[in-house]
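Hey, can you fold this one?
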Amino acid sequence: MLDVSLKQLAYVEAAGRLGSIANASTALQISESSVSAAIDGLETRLGFDLFVRVPAKGISKTPVGEEALALISRFLKDARATRAELGSLGGLAQGLVQVACFATAAANFLPDLLIKYAKDYPGVEVNLAEGDIELAVEHLDQGRADVAFTYQDVIPDTQEFRPLVEAPPYALISRSNPLSEAPDVTLEELSKFGMIALTLRQTHDYYTGMFTKAGLQVRVVHATPSTEMIRPLVAAGLGFTILNALPPNYLPDDPRFRAVPLRNGPAPRIFGIAMMKGVRQTRATDAFLKTVEDFRDNGGFQALAILNPKN
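Sure. Predicted structure:
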């Protein structure tokens, strides 16, 4: 029988997930020696190494450690769910909901959504994990998230998807460019100017691929993984970009840039929320999904998307 505590497993899981004992110590607000002791104790009981220690570079998982950490992560998630369900008996939802979100869209709706959820379910804690499209899906697939906000076209067969809003692609154009005043714009018109490309995984090929599929060439003048950086670059007149999610608190009369609909552009991407198929959700997660649906029905996700032009 393997005699280990939930606390010990949590220390080991954090070290594996964060890539170092120091990072786990900081995240958990415990000493590095406590994390090291948990790892050493579990490895001794298992009879094999979970990690390879790399001086000055942290730790890396061994092949068998990779499998063990996946099992530990799922076990801890189940344990948290059981504890939350027990605490919810006869009352409101309690516990923890872990939410992964495609970062470029998160700021547009998540604060208002979380305010509503916290008001209705004050006993539930929400942990957020932001990243690119693939990372949101990976968090869900590897048991590090209960739900994930992302686009439908990246969802694997193992996951269920609930659509929330259609998000047509649009061009973000500096006010110094005459195209910013047009009611809409074509890819051909845009191809005459330099493009600032978003380099998140999948995203770069998706946006530049629009031009390739249309038989056009586009000149990428700058590339960045950050939408926070793209907006000032566009505002400075260094190029246009193409996105699906509107900037947070976007106003059509913004003096720096304007979001211009694409005429005859690609079909809208469907933004929504995903969860693992066949998984019985906790009461707290079910309540979160219900809040998301209510938020959608009241138009809460419309600020994410530009109006789809008549093609």
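The mean pLDDT is 86. Let me know if you want another pass with a different chain boundary.
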